What we know:
This is Dehydrogenase. Belongs to the short-chain dehydrogenases/reductases (SDR) family. By secondary structure, the chain is of the alpha/beta class. It has a single domain (59-228), classed as NAD(P)-binding Rossmann-like Domain (Rossmann fold, 3-Layer(aba) Sandwich). It has helices at 12-24, 39-53, 76-107, 132-152, 179-187, 197-208, and strands at 4-9, 28-33, 58-61, 115-119, 158-164, 219-222. Helix 3 (76-107) runs parallel beside helix 4 (132-152). The longest helix has 32 residues, at 76-107.
Amino acid sequence: MPNEVVLADVDLPTAQRSAHELVAAGHAAHAVKCDVRLKTDCEAAVASAVAQWGKLDIMVANAGIVKAAPFLDMTEQDFDDVVAVNLKGVFLSCQAAARQMVSQRQADPSWSGGAIVTMSSVNAVMAIPTIAGYNASKGGVNGLTRCMALALAPHGIRVNGVGPGSIATDVLASVATDAAARDRILSRTPLGRIGQPEEIGDVVAFLASEASSYMSGQVLYVDGGRLALNYTVPVPDS
């Protein structure tokens, strides 16, 4: 796998710290500020990678947010904010990357073509009523992933997605101190534990590598068995 990485994030200081950690571990990395809602930022991030290393082989569209509210109370702004990052951001960032990859293939037909990986969720195919914007955006990511896979196949570019279940990121920080929240998550997770970010990274690395060279248009769910679970809900008294 290539170890020359551009970390593009709206939170530049955090991205810079992560880049420093990669450099300290012997990799080549640098950080750029990127708001994926803005086409110009996405194009600049791609241009930064090309300026630094001459080409772009892999794109991982990982930006995402969630805003929770009861469906009847969710504001239009909350819905728009989530869709703008989670869905429009994937479209803009992947389109910028794909255009660069296509130009590289045209300039050098021997170039392998590249790989794009999107970040979906189990909530693309199952619903939680308090995160309507998130559910809608991740369902859109699945459709966009398949669309890009078809559109870019003639250029040798593969596009696949990863659908995490409950992963120990900042979004789930509350489970560290809230036993009830942790129990709710584990009750719907057959493997009986919360996933780790590295376990998602391993699947992303697989989809970006030649080990998945005949895969495109797929979403791999890394969810501890959650989607396979047909669990019950409380039944109100009749």
